[in-house]
UniProtKB/TrEMBL annotation:
Keywords: Glycosyltransferase, Transferase. Residues 4-131 form the Glycosyltransferase 2-like domain. It comes from Lactococcus lactis subsp. cremoris. Transmembrane segments: none annotated. GO terms for molecular function: hexosyltransferase activity. This is Glycosyltransferase family 2 protein. It is an enzyme of class 2 (transferase). Its EC number is 2.4.-.-. The keyword Transferase applies.
Amino acid sequence: MKISVVIPCYNVEKYVSRCIESVLKQNISKQDFEILAINDGSTDKTLQILRGYEEKYSHIRVINQMNKGLGETRNIGIENVESDYIAFLDSDDWIDQDYLKVLYSLAEEYSLDIVNSGFRRPKPNGEILFQSNLLDQESSFFTNGTAWGKLYRTQFLKEKQIRNRISAFGEDIIFNLDCFEAGAKFKTTEYIGYNWFINDESLTRSSRDEEKIVETCKIFYKALCETSAKINSYYIILYASATLFTANIGAKAFKELSKEMENISKERVTQKDYIKAIFTYDKGVAFKLKMGTLIYSLSTLTRITPLLGFLKISNKVKRK
């Protein structure tokens, strides 16, 4: 078996068929790939839909489990495949018809541990909000920190014992940084074949969620700051700015989180790192990320970051 497509599923009865159908339509032989769909304690008809596909197609397997969260579910996927490569696919997203073929061909041609590819961001009405423009350089691997949109060599993940080790926001970023620290050979392609769907239902929250959001962001940032010196401090600052400025929280929670992040990073990021980040220019980093990193660096140096919460126009920042 060449490729296993691992799909964690939780309450996605409206979207999971589209996701699975996109894999079934891949322009490679069905003998070359399998689908491992993992139902993570869904309370809707997701499991029923998955069982229907499993009965119909011999190269689809379903695992049913109590709810464990996305990271742990991906870990279970890694443990339950024997294929050459693993591709993670979120259950409300879908892939283009040539997605697996393109990524597999690159992995084999260059003997890669990871192939990193771009994505587009479709809205429910079909409009494309934006798409990534990645360059084949190291920074593109860091700034495109998702587990989806990539092809991983299974043997590499298992031999290096790389798994999702936090259950919080940014778990896939830490996963990829662990791959980098373990010496993964990777390549980024400009090809775009992954569709990261804007699912309004998964983006809504109530004010009661703010405490949980702040806590998960802190867990992520602590793990980030515990990475080795192999990870350039610029990327620590970049992820800090992205975490803080896009967190779906109000001004008060923003102030709390910014102070906690500053305390967490004291031993990992120095004033010199922030100054250097202000003047860093990297073509592989998207403009918005560059600007966010610059603003965060300036505000941290001048100690005004907690005051930036008032700039959040509303609590309706969309995040998946």
